[in-house]
Amino acid sequence: MKSALASSTSVNHLTAKMQGLTLLHNRAGCGVSGPQRLPKFKHLAVACRSPLNRSPAFRRRQASQKTPAVASASAAATVAGGLPQTYGYLMASVAFTAAVVQWMVFQVAQARKAAGVQYPKLYAEGTNAVSVKFNCIQRVHQNTMENLPSFLIMQILLAQAYPLLASALGVAWAVGRIIYSLGYSSGDPNKRLPGAVISNLVQLGTLGTLAFTAFKVLTGRPI
pTM of this prediction? Predict the structure, then answer.
């Protein structure tokens, strides 16, 4: 009888302790909100991993309790849609490249009119200065369009890891194409070389950097 009484007392004591811990756990913030929460037990809420704490309402409440410094830093790092703020440089770089291509289109249209080349002919016939100049200007646009798709794809992929670097490479490539166009459009094909060297080196550098970044991703190394 004494053994049974002692066992019953131990069970009751253990049950009371568990109920007390449950009460403290609830008051710490894992299920109780508003005035019922005890501030001195807030540190216990860190250990709480209940489904309630993973709900959208809980996340919104936690976000509203961020300090102003954390909130401002988070806002500075991202823009609407969750894109990093540095992606603005990438967008500006791609827009600059598109503007350069449109400028080349305008140059071709002017040269076509001057040379009297009718559509759908791609190049002028003959070896006179006007025809040669039109062919050079047309070749500027054609060569740029041959390289543009692959370069833009590499630039955008590289921007997933290095947006600022990808943006700078895009601007450098477009500047190289401008120099290429100004030289080639003179009618002397040899004057295209400085711009061709710049844009080709940038394109090869982008390719190498993207390949190295892919290697780091595939091998689980930090980027």
Answer: 0.66
